[in-house]
Design goal:
Helix content is 35%, strand content 28%. It is of the alpha/beta class and 181 residues long. The protein has one domain: 3-Layer(aba) Sandwich (Rossmann fold). The strands form 2 sheets. A 6-stranded mixed beta sheet has the order 5-4-3-6-7-8, sandwiched between helices. Strands 1-2 form a two-stranded antiparallel ribbon. α1 packs across α6 and α3 packs across α4 (71-82). The relative contact order is 0.17. The mean pLDDT is 97. Bound molecules: 1-O-pyrophosphono-5-O-phosphono-alpha-D-ribofuranose (PRP) and orotic acid. Residues 25-26, 67-70, 116-124 line the site of 1-O-pyrophosphono-5-O-phosphono-alpha-D-ribofuranose (PRP).
Length: 181
């Protein structure tokens, strides 16, 4: 367990694990879905997640890159906690106005730590990494609330990204099993 908040896994699991049939972003079909908005909409749970994310930030982070959409509330909460500015990374650049992909201050040449809600295959994070790097950002780490990618593998190793997770699927499963007795 990477979290210092020992009840967090059980509370997140109870709040946002859904069962059914879900098509995921990657096109995979899963019988489980972690609805991050259910914890992000709860001010106390969001604050607890943000505290854990803050502890996982690399010391040399200059900007927090919150990924549209679920990464943005977490990045905002962490930004308020640690005093680092944030950029809000769109899935695709806005087609009018500033036409930006990432909203907020310039990230060219700056060390951006990505903040994500859930990682399954790492596809969304990979896309954001590539886009920000194209704009000159140094992106080496992503901190996510829930990592449900296969245990023991780094789905983003191919793009040189370290994944730091507040909670893994195994930890959520263990919390669920413990709660059921
Ligand atoms: O690791 P992956 O296989 O890419 O899957 C995880 C991504 O899928 C979800 O994005 P979605 O577009 O559903 O999210 P949003 O509600 O945050 O916009 C989730 O928020 C991650 O960004
Ligand atoms: O892979 C996804 O799309 C995904 C999985 C999940 O558990 N939660 C979520 O918001 N997205």
């Amino acid at each position: 367990m990477t979290t210092t908040d020992t009840a967090l896994a059980a509370d997140i699991d109870a709040t946002c694990r859904l069962t059914g049939e879900f098509v995921l972003r990657s096109g995979q079909v899963s019988n489980e879905y972690f609805d991050k908005y259910l914890f992000e909409a709860d001010p106390l749970l969001l604050a607890r997640v943000a505290r854990e994310v803050a502890q996982l930030l690399p010391a040399d982070a200059e900007l927090l890159g919150g990924l549209e959409m679920g990464g943005i509330p977490i990045a905002t909460a962490v930004s308020q906690l640690v005093g680092l500015p944030a950029v809000f990374v769109r899935k695709k650049a806005k087609e009018y106005g500033t036409a930006k992909l990432a909203e907020g201050p310039s990230y060219d040449g700056r060390r951006v730590v990505l903040i994500e809600d859930v990682i399954t295959t790492g596809g969304a994070v990979r896309d954001a990494t590539s886009a920000l790097r194209s704009g000159g950002a140094v992106v080496e780490t992503v901190v996510c609330a829930i990592d449900r990618s296969p245990a023991g593998e780094n789905p983003l190793a191919d793009v040189g990204l370290e994944v730091r997770a507040v909670l893994t699927k195994a930890e959520l499963d263990a919390a669920r099993a413990a709660a059921r007795g």
